[in-house]
Amino acid sequence: MRLSRYFMPILKENPKEAEIVSHRLMLRAGMIRQQSQGIYSWLPLGKRVLDKVNAIIRDEQNRAGAIELSMPTLQSAELWQESGRYDAYGKEMLRIKDRQDRPMLYGPTNEEMVTDIFRSSVKSYKDLPLNLYHIQLKFRDEIRPRFGTMRSREFMMKDAYSFDLTREAAEHSYNKMFAAYLRTFDRLGLRAIPMRADTGPIGGKLSHEFIILADTGESEVFCHKDFVDFDIPGKHTDFDSVEGLQAIFDKWTSLYAATSEMHDEAAFNAVPEGDRLSARGIEVGHIFYFGTKYSEPMGAKVQGPDGKEHFVHMGSYGIGPTRLVPAIIEASHDDNGIIWPASVAPFDIVVINMKAGDQACDDTCELIYAALTKAGKDVLYDDTDDRAGTKFATADLIGVPVQIIAGPRAVANGEVEVKDRKTGARETMTIEAAINRFVA
Ligand code: ATP
Ligand code: MG
User: Fold this and answer.
1) Which ligand 1 atom sits closest to the C-alpha of 159?
2) Which of 289, 313, 338 is the last residue of a domain?
3) Which of 201, 224, 295, 351 is the most buried (most CB within 10 A)?
4) Which range of residues forms the domain containing residue 57?
């Protein structure tokens, strides 16, 4: 991508409305724009990151056996009257009438709709287990939307829903998502700690929130510090192994970890003082097992091996991609801007032409840009006629992991500089060496 032809509206000044660093940097880097309170457009740079986050989430959901579909944002109120949640949900639900005066709503979550899909076609235990997910916009009319897309009214959620014949089978489905979440957050460059959580309006029995430790987090959390170094399940984890997944779950719940709603002071005080971590955290995922809470009122049942009908046991599993992007920034930035983990960086490499219009600089940059693009890298080429200082500041701000800098003096020697955004380390090398370093 040539920056001169791209759309990346950088802000020079710090936007006043932004209270936390991720919101400030997302606005300054031209990633998002607020359209009305708590409702955002994702501009091209932000969209690239969001897409990469979603690709990782999708990959790990698929690995764990979940199946993607797509459900609408607008739902009929009737479904919610069946489950009894239409009145219970309160003012967070945006209620709409269509031209026939039928009550509709902008979905805050999809338990009812997916249960309806399930009951319309699944009739036998032989079709279980089943886990259906989508990555879709939600709307919750939050009383206090803030911190940009961290807490917005319209936001994206990956929501998965599992269906099983028995509680035991449902626990295996729960453990699959538990392990998938550990892997997902790890691949996003984050350390998320599962904490015992309140089940809230979704309702249920077993629930964990996945929390990232960050000073700007809205949750107050308490845990054993060893969680920070626990091993993540590997990519060859067998998701069909009941014992294997139970062992992962047992290990990751063996030490104290709870949000303030579930905090047990006495149990926490039993942790040796030097091992206690009491901190702020950002909730990036939340999983629930809630048994037959929706299947009973909505009549979602299957025939069991005993020939009888059974209400299915369900769970739901949410991740917030539009919250994860700022959460990653909270965890990874410096005074100059964002430092993206390679897995979600909007571009892999930025090529900086320090003197656009200078034939040797232009030729060198074009050569590098073409070679790296051909090798499958996402390359941003800063071919604008801005001052070098402005270009460096922009490259640091948008946090692309590698900068290849071509200035007239180095280029005259057949060389460029390669800078690592995270460490700041710079190395001068030949043009060929710079290309070879990033071409596998
Ligand atoms: P919170 O406690 O932060 O309000 P929640 O418990 O209501 O969130 P869930 O119903 O558990 O949220 O939703 C699953 C995930 O969706 C959350 O873990 C979070 O990542 C994301 N999410 C929920 N509400 C928002 C929001 N207003 N803005 C952005 N992401 C959100
Ligand atoms: Mg939650």
Assistant:
1) 14
2) 338
3) 351
4) 3-338
> Residue 16 falls within a domain, yes or no?
yes
Which residues have their alpha-adjacent CB atom under 5 A from ion ligand 2? 286
Instruction: For residues 41-61, give the mean pLDDT.
Output: 98
Is residue 343 a part of any domain in this protein? Answer: no
Question: If you measure from the C-alpha of residue 358 to the centroid of ligand 1, how many angstroms do you get, rounded to a whole number?
Answer: 51
In a domain, 376, yes or no: yes
pLDDT at 199 over 90: no
Q: Each residue of 260-282: pLDDT tens digit?
A: 989 999 999 999 999 999 999 99
204 lines ligand 1 (CB under 6 A): no
Is ligand 1 within 6 A of the CB of residue 40?
Answer: no
Length of the chain: 440
Q: Could you say which of 338, 366, 388 is where a domain stops?
A: 338
Q: Is the CB of 155 under 6 A from ligand 1?
A: yes
- Are residue 183 and residue 159 in the same domain, yes or no? yes
Strands, DSSP E only, in 175-256?
192-196, 206-213, 219-224
Q: Compute, in angstroms, the gap from residue 320 CA to the centroid of ligand 1.
A: 6
Q: Which residue's CA lies nearest to atom 21 of ligand 1?
A: 320
pLDDT of residue 86: 96
> C-alpha distances in angstroms, 414 versus 95, 349, 359, 411?
64, 20, 13, 5
